[in-house]
Amino acid sequence: MTIAQQRVLIIGGSSGMGLATAQRLGQAGAEVFIAGRDQSRLEAAVRTVQGKAVGIAADFTDPASLAAMIGRIGRLDHLVLAAGGGAAWGPFAQVTADALRRAFELKLLGYWQSLQAALPVLRKDGSVVMLTGAASRVAMNGTAGLAAVNGGITQMAQTLARELAPLRVNVVSPGLVDTPAYDGMPAEAKAGMFAAAARSLPVGRTGRSEDIAAAVEMLIANTFATGVLLDLDGGARMPL
Ligand SMILES: NC(=O)c1ccc[n+]([C@@H]2O[C@H](COP(=O)([O-])OP(=O)(O)OC[C@H]3O[C@@H](n4cnc5c(N)ncnc54)[C@H](OP(=O)(O)O)[C@@H]3O)[C@@H](O)[C@H]2O)c1
């Protein structure tokens, strides 16, 4: 299948892996709709996409905001869920129930509500790609909250791949990828974290947003792919 002329909504498309996906699909001739909360960030993102791209401000935790966005878009072939991420990090004993609840709201519930909102306008045999995270696939100290949220999305996606068929539903589970999500970290701490991760991985480097975008495009285009969980983590899951 060619992606040209396909209408794709990327929620979380104004930054990082979502933006790289928008750029890649735009270059391939898709009509790209980019959603995020910050209007100026959206406008800047749209300017970097070749071809047809529209930015729509929306908050995927708010059903009214999602409904208004879907009303503007009309018809869709594919949906990419690449937003969010709450801060449910840290030693298990210190992550409060409120922090975990918030993390679920900021990702799993956002994905859930986004797909519910888009479903009536999504082509019946179109596709959905959800970004989860390697914390749900590799047991690492301090990531039980992330594991719960992203593991929940993985499981729900695989059930939906059957329930919503012929709609195809796939998951990409990224490892550590250098995106603006880490802009808030002190530069030295960030560099140290990425260098340590790169040393630990068989590929000798951390991820780039383009690595993930290429996989999302493949899952959209390959009509034999559904219920796929694709680990793109530089080998983080391989046993020592
Ligand atoms: N980077 C990594 O190392 C990594 C690893 C594993 C998994 N992940 C997951 O991969 C996904 C993408 O990560 P990233 O690093 O590319 O993130 P990013 O650069 O921070 O981009 C996040 C995007 O989501 C949008 N967004 C956030 N909250 C939203 C909301 N409530 N409603 C609508 N849009 C919202 C942001 O725009 P606004 O802020 O303007 O709304 C932005 O466009 C996330 O789910 C993250 O948890 C990331």
Small molecules bound: NADP nicotinamide-adenine-dinucleotide phosphate
What's the CATH first level? Alpha Beta
Low-confidence stretches: none
The proportion of residues in beta strands is 15-25%
Put simply, the count of helices is 8
Order of helices and strands: EHEHEHEHHEHEHHE
* Strand ordering within the main sheet: 3-2-1-4-5-6-7
Task: Describe the overall structure.
- The protein is of the alpha/beta class and 240 residues long.
- It has a single domain, classed as Rossmann fold, CATH 3.40.50.720.
- It has a seven-stranded parallel beta sheet with strand order 3-2-1-4-5-6-7, sandwiched between helices.
- Strand 5, helix 6 and strand 6 form a beta-alpha-beta unit.
- The longest helix is centred in the middle third of the chain and has 20 residues.
- It starts with 6 loop residues before the first strand and ends in an 8-residue tail after the last strand.
